[in-house]
């Protein structure tokens, strides 16, 4: 009898916590939006696709073989805000028009704010290789960090768990774990240079160079090299800074002999 009342009390606490927290109202908005999108993807395709000049099919035939489109990139950010709570707030205000799938606190707490199959609004105007709509193709992960701090161990540990889950669930290629600064070099610098890309690469998320490297041929064009890796080279100076931040933890301008050597090595190793 005592046991039953204990469980009843627990249930009451959980129910209370679920129904009475600061995001109750915005969670309702989330659910309404999900309903709208579900009705969109549930629509039966029309029999007349284009216009009168193309004859319609006599009836609709739905295939029986299909799945859901999956994300193929993971974009890592720093929030550039004071704390996780501030970011949660930002991502639930319609006027900000920004969001991410996951927010990871410096204490390692993980908030998943958006189902992986939905399109977040974290990348903005960006490019990687020939992929221009990065939001449609990626999962966005925001790390609570004001942009000038090192990343906490607990936060990185949680990040690695989330990345492992995403890589496995969606079969995301190793090369496709990149930073916001990589895909938007003229606008963004996150995650900041302190982010442990080398550690991530050792765990299978993102590329990394060899310790022992060949001499770079003088004719090696590092701008083409950056383009081959994925960088948008419209602004070559910004692309070089983005590359150096990621692979050399260096935020200065201009390509260096070491930068060329690492880029040449990456190109040879992976492309
Ligand atoms: Zn960002």
Binned, the helix content reads: 40-55%
- Side-by-side strand order of the widest sheet: 3-2-4-1-5
Q: Tell me the number of structural domains.
A: 2
CATH architecture name of the largest domain: 3-Layer(aba) Sandwich
Helix count equals: 10
- Enumerate the spans where pLDDT stays under 50 for 5 or more consecutive residues: none
> Which kinds of small molecule does this entry bind, naming each only once?
zinc ion
Provide a descriptive summary of the structure in words.
By secondary structure, the protein is an alpha/beta fold. The chain has 2 domains: 70-205, Peptidoglycan recognition protein-like (Lysozyme-like, 3-Layer(aba) Sandwich), CATH 3.40.80.10; 209-271, no CATH class. It is built from 10 helices and 5 strands, in the order ααβαββαβαβααααα. It has helices at residues 2-19, 24-41, 84-90, 134-137, 153-170, 180-183, 197-202, 222-229, 236-248, 257-270, and strands spanning 73-78, 102-104, 110-112, 138-143, 177-179. It has a 5-stranded mixed beta sheet, sandwiched between helices. α8 (222-229) packs across α10. The longest helix has 18 residues, at 2-19. The mean pLDDT is 94. Bound molecules: zinc ion (ZN). Zinc ion binds next to loops.
């Amino acid at each position: 009898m005592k046991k039953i009342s204990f469980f009843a009390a627990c249930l009451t606490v959980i129910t209370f916590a679920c129904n009475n927290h600061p995001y109750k109202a915005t969670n309702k908005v989330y659910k309404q939006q999900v309903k709208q999108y579900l009705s969109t993807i549930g629509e039966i395709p029309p029999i007349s696709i284009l216009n009168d000049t193309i004859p319609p099919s006599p009836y609709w035939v739905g295939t029986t073989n299909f799945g859901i489109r999956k994300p193929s990139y993971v974009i890592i950010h720093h929030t550039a805000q004071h704390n996780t709570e501030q970011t949660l707030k930002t991502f639930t205000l319609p006027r900000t028009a920004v969001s991410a799938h996951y927010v990871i606190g410096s204490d390692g707490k993980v908030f998943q704010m958006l189902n992986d199959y939905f399109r977040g609004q974290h990348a903005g105007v960006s490019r990687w290789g020939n992929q221009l709509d990065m939001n449609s193709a990626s999962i966005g992960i925001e790390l609570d960090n004001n942009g000038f701090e090192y990343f906490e161990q607990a936060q990185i540990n949680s990040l690695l768990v989330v990345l492992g889950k995403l890589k496995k669930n969606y079969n995301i290629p190793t090369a496709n774990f990149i930073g916001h600064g990589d895909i938007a070099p003229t606008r963004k610098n996150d995650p900041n240079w302190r982010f442990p890309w080398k550690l991530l690469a050792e765990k299978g998320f993102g590329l990394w160079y060899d310790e022992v490297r060949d001499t770079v041929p003088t004719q090696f064009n590092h701008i083409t090299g950056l383009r081959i890796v994925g960088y948008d080279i419209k602004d070559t100076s910004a692309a070089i800074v983005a590359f150096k931040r990621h692979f050399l933890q260096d935020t200065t301008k201009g390509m260096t002999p070491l930068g060329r050597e690492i880029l040449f090595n990456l190109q040879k190793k992976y492309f």
